[in-house]
Write a structure and sequence with these properties.
The chain is of the alpha/beta class. The protein contains 10 helices and 10 strands. Helix 1 runs parallel beside helix 4 and helix 1 packs antiparallel against helix 9.
């Protein structure tokens, strides 16, 4: 039984990290006019009302999107413009959709029936957006390679069950074997309890798949309230990044400064840096 609902966490610092970088990648992908397919394996509800009682209950957006108001964030204008123009706080699917053109496709999976209902309403009558209530891992494997041959996979599991730490790298690798040209963006949390070990195992699993060109951006908050949520860090592993490392690093630094945290950007198969960041040697 799934209990995770993203509305309780929407707009938090990890969302800011994930959504800002997603926007940067989408922006580069739409520079070419050829068709694109975006697959969002864990789409959530599409857009989130940060003033709703559920979101207010945790107020996680206070350490996230709300803390960015009045700060200058050079290089992130495409994402900020979307937030300004959308009525509700845009999640991954909504952000991807705003970049897409009529010739493109957006495929989404969401397993939670309530969340799926919201997702459907968020994209009702949209001819290029297709939401299904199936596992995102299944959607991914049956959709790649897409006929467009160009595009991106967003994988944002809830990690409510530890199994996601194994399922995510495993399915990314299966998809990569069928579609090595795809751009893959995997998000993962860094939790206070045991989180560094889980993170390390996840990154080690990714390395062990033998996939190359995996760029990692991580942000760790300096001060997380002792009570409440246990996540103090957010990570993104990008396979086949279509942006130079320096742009990802600069954007991560801008965000980390604004969120009052620290950041690291590194290539996963760079053994030197991997040692420094505590990855298990393979
Ligand atoms: N990407 C979203 C947030 C997703 S939160 C955003 O940025 O807005 C993770 C979501 O995955 C939750 O809504 C949860 O219900 C859903 N979920 C959990 N397991 C799943 C699975 N195997 N396949 C698809 N969705 C799943």
């Amino acid at each position: 039984m799934l209990s995770y609902q993203h509305i309780y966490h929407a707009g938090n610092f990890a969302d800011v990290h994930k959504h800002a970088l997603l926007s940067l990648f989408m922006d580069t992908l739409v520079k070419k006019s050829s068709r694109l397919c975006v697959i969002d394996t864990h789409a959530g509800r599409g857009a989130y009302d940060l003033d709703s009682p559920s979101a207010q209950k945790t107020s996680e957006s206070r350490n996230g999107i709300k803390s960015l108001q009045d700060k200058t964030l050079p290089g992130l204008s495409a994402w900020l413009k979307i937030i300004e123009e959308e009525k509700l706080y845009p999640g991954s699917a909504r952000i991807a959709r705003t970049f897409l053109r009529p010739q493109d496709r957006l495929l989404m999976a969401e397993l939670h029936p309530g969340e799926f209902g919201h997702l459907q309403s968020c994209f009702s009558d949209d001819p290029i957006a297709h939401a299904r209530m199936i596992s995102g891992y299944d959607l991914l494997l049956e959709s790649v390679p897409p006929e467009e041959r160009r595009g991106m996979v967003i994988m944002d599991p809830p990690y409510e069950l530890d199994q996601d730490y194994k399922d995510a790298p495993h399915h990314l690798h299966l998809a990569y074997k069928k579609w090595p040209q795809g751009v893959y963006l995997l998000w993962y949390p860094i939790l206070r309890t045991d989180g560094e070990r889980m993170r390390s195992e996840l990154l080690t699993s990714l390395r062990q798949t033998g996939m190359h060109d995996i760029l990692v951006s991580e942000i760790r908050l300096q001060g997380v309230p002792a009570e409440g949520f246990a996540m103090h860090g957010s990570g993104l592993a990008i396979i086949n990044p279509t942006l130079p490392e320096s742009i990802v690093r600069t954007a991560s630094e801008t965000l980390a400064n604004a969120l009052v945290g620290s950041t690291k950007t590194f290539w996963l198969d760079n053994v030197e840096i991997a040692k420094e960041t505590g990855l298990v040697a393979i």
